[in-house]
Design brief:
This protein is α/β, with parallel strands linked by helices. It has one domain: 3-Layer(aba) Sandwich (Rossmann fold). Helices cover 51% and strands 14% of the residues. It is built from nine helices and eight strands. Strand 3 and strand 4 form a beta hairpin. The model has no long low-confidence stretch (mean pLDDT 94). The structure holds 2'-deoxycytidine-5'-monophosphate. 2'-deoxycytidine-5'-monophosphate (DC) binds next to helix 2, helix 4 and helix 8.
Length: 225
């Protein structure tokens, strides 16, 4: 029997990378919920709206959020994935994610998408709010230093000129915003397995979550339905 998997953790801890690889291995569907919050930031920028504006909530409620086969976010049918992965969008998204009206719209869409089994959702509130009954909950973390180093490498590959200290400070600020916000802050639920990826390769991290998942899937019987 298939299960649902919730992966939560701070910014730049590699949740989406692990979730994507795991989904491929298990033949599950991966949903990167952070990209939905990022799409809201994109809407705010495009329409020049403040994170707390009621017009932004209306716009979000009238928008359609979907995913392409390769996991890219589709906003009203349009693939905006390439436009939502910048440092500017990072910080704005973290502020928009404090807006409870927007959260509740996105949470209900996420719950509708994953209303059967075979989903891997990654985000901040998956195990605590969106999929409270997920069979496997993982809290994926890593030191700020290792997350900042990974982000720096990603930016360098993309040719973006940014220094280590700036990235380090921004990750620290986003951690603080995500963990201390009033609504659905990032928390480690008691039933979550902790995965510290500071000293692990991607392959080692995927293997570990795969082992946890496999054990639970086997406990429930068949492995592929
Ligand atoms: O995972 P990410 O870095 O793409 O997330 C972008 C922002 O969205 C981050 O600041 C936290 C927020 N977020 C959230 O509040 N809840 C989620 N389920 C996913 C992301």
């Amino acid at each position: 029997m298939k299960i649902n998997i919730a992966i939560d953790g701070p910014s730049a801890s590699g949740k989406s990378t692990i979730a994507k690889a795991l989904a491929k291995r298990l033949n599950y569907t991966h949903i990167d919920t952070g990209s939905m919050y990022r799409a809201c930031a994109y809407l705010a920028l495009k329409h020049d709206l403040k994170p707390e504006a009621i017009e932004l909530v209306d716009l979000v409620n009238r928008s359609h959020f979907g995913f392409s086969e390769n996991g890219h976010i589709l906003l009203n049918g349009k693939d905006i994935d390439a436009k939502i992965r910048s440092k500017h969008v990072d910080l704005l998204t973290s502020t928009i994610a404090q807006n409870q009206a927007i959260r509740s719209t996105l949470v209900s869409i996420q719950q509708q998408i994953a209303n059967t089994k075979g989903f891997i959702l990654d985000g901040r509130d998956i195990g605590s709010v969106v999929l409270k009954d997920a069979e496997l909950k993982v809290f994926q973390t890593a030191s700020i230093e290792s997350r900042a180093k990974r982000r720096l490498t990603e930016y360098q590959i993309k040719g973006i000129d940014v220094d280590y200290q700036t990235i380090y400070d921004e990750i620290k600020l986003r951690d603080l915003q995500d963990q201390s916000r009033e609504h659905s802050p990032l928390i480690q639920t008691e039933d979550a397995y902790v995965l510290d990826t500071s000293d692990l390769t991607i392959e080692q991290s995927v293997n570990q979550v795969y082992e946890w998942a496999k054990e639970l899937i086997e406990e429930r019987g068949d492995t592929n339905d």
